[in-house]
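Example record for the data management plan.
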Amino acid sequence: MKKNIIIFAAHPDDELLGCGGTIKLLSKKNNVIVVFFTTGITSRNTKNANISINKLKIHSEKSAKILGIKSIIFLDLQDNKLDTYPRLEIIQRIEKIINNFKPSKIFTHHFSDLNIDHEIVSKSVITACRPNHFNKYLKQIYLFETLSNTEWSIQRKFQPNVYMDISKTINFKIRAMKEYKTELQKKPMPRSIEIIKTLAKLRGSEINVNFAESFYLFREII
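Corresponding structural encoding:
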């Protein structure tokens, strides 16, 4: 029986940037569920906001198909305004999703990311996953890095201690990123194909493989 894995991401494309290659590897033997907290684009594009949101959702669904993601949950909260919601409300939403899917692994943002939505999602997930009855099935919590956020952090606290060799899935990650037409940037901006591959090469060099993604293991129950 396949186990469930949940990716909690603040915005569409964060899941791809943070662990797209890993998702492709894990989706072969697991059910991968992605939760998007915000619409992810309205803070940059206030004109025709509904059209922009719908386009981004379509892009995320096309990307998800390439990566083998089983299902997507859109919470549709306001982009870059998670700090305006009661924290308890966000935590309770996360708890409900965890109770429903009973994941064995969770991936989410690093808590020191520059973007306020990333920080709140990370800390809310960690709070929702405090040691309790979830321990019966939730065995690992991983925090990922997100280009244009983690490396821009004032604190710069991301120190990876777990790596995934994505040499066999890097091309899927790139293909999936190309579906995010509204989010894709041109070099030398971080969310460009060239820089995504450069980071994967850098992380790969740290463990002597061609391409890798890196994570901070927040908790593991053996």
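Summary line stored alongside the record: The beta strands are 3-9, 30-38, 71-77, 105-109, 140-144, 162-165, 212-220.
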